[in-house]
Amino acid sequence: MSDDVPALDDANAVKPAADVVVAVDVGATYFQAGLVTARGVLVDRSSALIEADVGPESNYTTLAHIVTEMLERAQTRHAAVVRGVGLSSGGHVSRGLDVVSPLSVPAWHDFPLRARLEELSGHAVYGDLDAKALALAEGWLGAAQGQPNFCAVTVSAGVSGGIILDGDLLDGESGYAGQIGHFVVEPGGRRCVCGTQGCLEAEASGQAIAAITGRPATESSYQVMQRTGDLVGRVAASMCNAFDLSLVVVGGSVALGFGSTFFHAAQVTLDEHARQPYSRGARITPSRLGESGPLVGAGAVGWRGLRRAARRRPSASVAQPPNAR
Ligand SMILES: [Zn+2]
Q1: How far is the CA of 208 from the centre of ligand 1 (A)?
Q2: What is the pLDDT of residues 71-121, one digit of tens each?
Q3: Which are the contacts of 248, defined by CB distance < 8 A and separation ≥ 6?
Q4: How remote is the CA of residue 2 from the centroid of ligand 1, in Å?
Q5: Under CATH, to which class is 143-288 assigned?
Q6: Ligand 1 mean position to 114 CA, how many Å?
Q7: Taking the model in full, what pTM does it have?
Q8: How many Å lie between the centroid of ligand 1 and the Cα of residue 233?
Q9: CATH code of the domain occupying 10-129+291-312
Q10: Ligand 1 center to residue 127 CA distance, Å?
Q11: Which residues surround ligand 1, an ion (CB under 5 A)?
Q12: CA–CA gap between residue 47 and residue 30 (Å, rounded)
């Protein structure tokens, strides 16, 4: 169940006694845990399959096992000091992931994940939605590196996103800012899980494509790939026009799987609809972090949380974190 991968960048390989956060991601199929340095290097990782038909404590035990493994390896293999824990999850969550109800873990309804991980690790745990975590990661080390203004979008089983504006990740009233899956792209279109019709998620997500075509998204025709790109491009244009952005980074298995057909169609539509002087020329580009994105994202959430906590305690110091604000 566990697998080791080498550091992403050997030149940045962790030094003895480097600081790390334990990154924890509740994914669609797997729990993942890893160690992420303050420079975003993923120095170790482990994963465990999420079992759908077991109780909440059984799920937690599976996750706790790989988190404990990372806590131990930080010390024994990497001579690293754990500074905190960064956590990411999709689904319905409360702000900061105090309680989570991920679709991929049906037994967890308002499960107190943050408190349980704090108890387990003895460290502060900082949590955020997976798409927002990915936005932080793309701005830190990915396709939007160093960009203060962009939107990150994931098109996989669902459609989600995160917005970085003036160098900071937007949270919103309840922490869901950037959930662009519920932009209406087809008035009167398919019924969405949210109750309305024609949302981007109801038309362009992997689940929607499977329902519309009767085939998994991986077997989509050229026309379906193009339509999906077109719909995402429409929303990307609205985002650029509304938030004064010139870059939209798109990840997720569906978008990345459709590749250039998707991205070409999305760019054509974005060009067509982003016509303000400030939004003209906006680009839509694939995410660059690939399968390490979720853990680097969770790591970014952890470092961001530590930095913010340190600002509230001026005497504390935290190593250089991502998206410095
Ligand atoms: Zn909806």
Answers
A1: 11
A2: 999 999 999 999 999 999 988 888 888 999 998 899 999 999 999 999 999
A3: 150, 151, 152, 153, 236, 239, 240, 270, 282, 283, 284, 285
A4: 36
A5: alpha beta
A6: 28
A7: 0.88
A8: 17
A9: 3.30.420.40
A10: 24
A11: 182, 192, 194, 199
A12: 6
